[in-house]
Amino acid sequence: MQIIKASASHLAPLAALFDAYRQHYEQAPDLEGAKAYLAARFENNDSVIYVAEAEGQLLGFTQLYPVFSSIGMKKAWILNDLFVDPQHRRKGAARKLIGASRELGQGTDARYIMLQTHITNTPAQALYEDEGFKRDEEFYYYYLSI
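^ that's the sequence the OP posted. Answer follows.
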């Protein structure tokens, strides 16, 4: 298994994984929408996407978006998406994708990498905590739906 930075050449198989990821979060299937969304990310250089690949097949991906820390006066990253195809879980892909994310943060002199997960997603929480992420106990997060 190798972790590589995705490019537009990965669009078709990545879109299938991305669509499965969205369905996991109870979104309606939309493969064409997934392709268009990811194509725009590549075209606009809005995010960094890493894929786990083995024998020519994509097993999983992570997508990070850049943000900035005004207090730290540095770049930061939001690890927005992390998904491994259920058939390929428990083989180390998620850990390797997190490792690539960590290297991105270090390589860009980022202040932090932030993520969120469902309160009930205890397997992911255990993985994140094992990889060094700390649960925020200092700040509340608020959302304004638009």
